[in-house]
Structures are given as C-alpha cells and as structure tokens.
Amino acid sequence: MVVLVAVSVLLGGLVLLIAFLFGRARGESQSESTEDVKINGQTAPEKLFPKKQKLHKLRNEKPQQHTFNHPLLASVLKAHSGNITCLDFSSNGKYLATCSDDRTVRIWTTKDFLDRDHRSLRANVEFDHATHVRFSNDCRAFIVCLANGETLRMYKMTKKDDNITFSASPEDFPKRHKAPIINFGVAETGKFFMSASSDTTILVWNLKGEVLASINTNQMNNAYAAVSPCGRFVASCGFTPDVKVWEVCFAKGGVFREVCRAFDLKGHTAGVCGFAFSNDSSKMATVSKDGTWKMWNTDVEYKKQQDPYLLHTGRWSGKEPCRIALSPDARVIAISSASDITVYNAQTGEVEEEFLSVHGVVITDLAFDTGNRFLVSTGDRAVRLFHNTAGYRAAIADMNDMLKKATNKGTKERLQQQIRDAHKALNAVMKKKN
What Gene3D superfamilies is this protein classified in (predicted)? Predict the structure, then answer.
C-alpha cells in the first residue's frame, strides 16, 4: 500500500514538473515572438489583426488631389480620375481637349473657363489610353496616340441639338513606328499630319493613314517634334544642340511632292529639350540643357539661303524635365521645370511670374490658349489656368512704342483703343488678385 502511494506521488510530481516546464517554454516562445515583432518596428501579435484591417482600409482610399493656390490662378478643371498626359486647343478657340491614363478624352468649352462649374464631354478610349491628343484642322474630329498600341486613332465629333457625340474610326492607323511615339501634330491646311518616335524617325501621313514620307533626323534621338501653326513646316530637336526644320511641299493641285530641309536653329551648346512656334510661325522659342532659352525670328527666305536670326537669349533653372510654350503673339515665353513654371518677357528676358509646385507630379504639357488670355498646364488630374498678365503688360509696352512712332491719325486712334482695352483687362485681373 505504501509503495502504491509513493508511486502515485512520484507520478503526480512528474506531471506537475512537465506542466511547469511546458508552460515556461510556451511563455518564453511568446516573449521571443513579441521581441522579434517589436524589433521589426511592429506591435505585439495580438494587435496585428486590427493593423491589417487599417492597412486594407487605406488601400481603398482615393489618393489625395494636389492642392495649389495663387492669385493669378484663373480656374481649375477637374474631371479626370487619372493623370492628364496632354492637352490641345482647337484652332477655332472653342474647345480644349485633354487625355489621361484613365482611358478617357475630355472636351471642354473654353467659354466656361471662368465659370464656377466646368462641364466636359467624355470620350472613352477602348482597350487602351491616350498619351497625346490633337484636334483635326476643321475641329470636327480629334486624333489620339495609343499608349499600348503605339499607333493613332481618330474620333469624329458629331454635333446635334447642342449635343456632341464621339465615334471612333473603324480601324486604327497602321503601326509604322519601331519606337514609342513622343508627339504628333496635324497641319492647319489639312493636307498632312506628322508623328515622331523616340528614335530618329518622323513620319508624314495623309489623312487616310498612308505614309507620304519618312524623315531621319540624324540626331541620336528625338526629344520633341511638332508641326508649325501655318501648316508648312515640321521641326524636331533632340540630342544635338540645334533644331531642324523641314518644309512639307505640295503641288498646286494638293498632291504631295516632297519634304525638303528648310533651316536650322543653331546657337545652343547642349541638346535642345523643346521648342514652340508663334501663331503665325514667324517666331520660335527654344530651351536647352545648356541652361538657356532663345527667341528666334524665323520669317526668312530660306530658299535664298537666308538664315533665321537670334532675337534674345535668356536663362532658366536648367532643371529637367521641362517644356516651353510661346504665346500666340510671341511676347511671352513660359517654361516648366519639373512641377514649377516661370514666365518671361520674350523681348527683355525678364522674369514676369513664377508658379511653384503647380502640380503634384511633373508637368506633362504647357500651352497658351488661342486667345492669349491664359497659360494652361497639366500634370496630375487637374488642368490649371493662369491669367496671362505678362502678355497684357508686354502688349501695352509694345503698343505704346508703336504709338510714339505712328504718324497716321487712324493708326493712333486704333492703338489708343487697344491700349485702353489691354489696361482694362489687366486691371480686372489685378483687382481680383488683390
């Protein structure tokens, strides 16, 4: 009997000892686990589940829109749900087109720019998104460059009872570029359009989608290319420190003849990042990696070997990526540098305005409207419009100089009225600013 009791006590002690050791090991394991989590910058295991729920909630929240305020900010257009990649004004000045990586193109009415509410019409880009958008010369259609398809697609705009509908062409243009398309443009004459890729290729097309000519720019790579507003020239810049300009020539009957070299803009000491034409193509502005921008007179008889001549050289921050815009009257130059914009007097080179951190990302496009009233920029999901006060001031200074030289009474009266109108417009903007 005594033996059985002793055995029972011994077994009970062993059970208690095993339970104690197991509990101690489990506690040490939990402690080590907690230390490991804390060492990695996390909280204790029992708090991990609520943390996962919070992270899941954050992932579902929409990204915050970049906020920007400035006294000269005239309006902000918001409708896109993705970053805007390009903008274009119709030649009649009535519409603004914007495209985005949200797979849509938006058409805005310019007469609504200063209204509180901004309406837009949406065109869906099926199975792709647009990197660039351009209106046709007759403003009855627009063309987009497809990001994934690396080709072009046309949309017709049909207006009926003040409503506009969009219909894509049955087939996209054939893919002809071997490298990504960096820009394209439509000639105001309606005779051709141009597309340029990031290699050294520029293609000249007719509106049926047939390639009329291929240009090798011979400049290592193309940084930018465009069609002049007059519809005669195609220009390109890139690795080399110059801008090359070609004329697209047609016979009297409208039949394509050839593409011939017109002139070059030479004077920069490093690669040219971009350029812009004035509305009548008589002036050009260029911006270079050498930290300078230049203003040129391109109204020359190049067939008689007359070269464009330099009007002015100014300096900019040199911070890339950058874009340059020239006002329609060639009085004002705007240069975007990353997400900042600086506005210059094109004749004196003086800085007129500075807008910092305009967009939450790098500025993707920059342009003046056809009426010379606004400077417009895109980058994130918003289009921002600034009053062109520098343009008003430059116009007043120019017209005062012309008034001093005028001898005809009618000319003097016309200039005086234009000066009064410009002062009135400037005063209205400055009143709102203050």
Answer: YVTN repeat-like/Quinoprotein amine dehydrogenase (2.130.10.10)
